[in-house]
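Shapes recur. One chain:

:::
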Amino acid sequence: MTGYGQGQQDAGDLRVTVELKTVNNRFADVRFRLPAELAGWETRVRRTVLARVRRGRVELSVRFERGNTAGASALNQEFLQTVLAAAQQLRDEHGIDGELDLGKIVTLPGLFRAESPVLGEGEEQREVLDRCLAIGLDALDADRLREGAALAVELLERLHTMHELAATMNARATTVPATVRDRLVERLDRLGVDLQLDPARVTQEAALLADRCDVTEELVRLAGHLDQATSLLGEPDGQPVGKRLDFLLQEIHRETNTVNSKSSDLELTRTALAMKAEAEKVREQVQNLE
């Protein structure tokens, strides 16, 4: 699921900003953009993020900004020494005369460099980072919850359609025994007018054929899976539902496939195929749902 969250806190003359962005992913993956001095903070923050984000790729960055910009730049001594040495070399080795002009020197690119703000070490500084992270995660959760609520509405509509298809399949399945018997009698009649049929034997064979085409158990399990999936979305228990829905969709797909393979009825087969198509659409969305 996608989302964005930001947390900011002040530490002395520094402002610390933690940004979190998430994009869809079947698994949890945390990627960092941290200043070098925060390398030791990575393991702890990874555990904190993974406790809140179970699915999705998270991009986390930390930025420092100095509140007082007056001392934000410093003279690049190494660069200045290089310029002076080059000027001296031109005089000594090439005989080029001339004086260095201060006004031109101070305009040289690279003569001044910005000092990177650094957050000091210690418990207070770690608390600042942790507060920023907590604020950012809360904002990220709120953003993802909004997306999840909109997605749940769409998924519930599709599950409602799947319930209707399951009801149609169930109603059609009840007509299969009679249809099988009629087909059997019709085929036997084609063998010859003088063929004497034993009604008991015809009924027995029809029962055997109907038993092979019986999908009652599959349809009962299918209805149970649909009810559970609807309950997870319509009555959330506060726990992640993505992987549980993913599993239920696999089972729905399995039962529908079995119905399709056992069915000898064209209308039942068509309805089963429509169920598979609808289940696949739901599963594509569920892959990224936490």
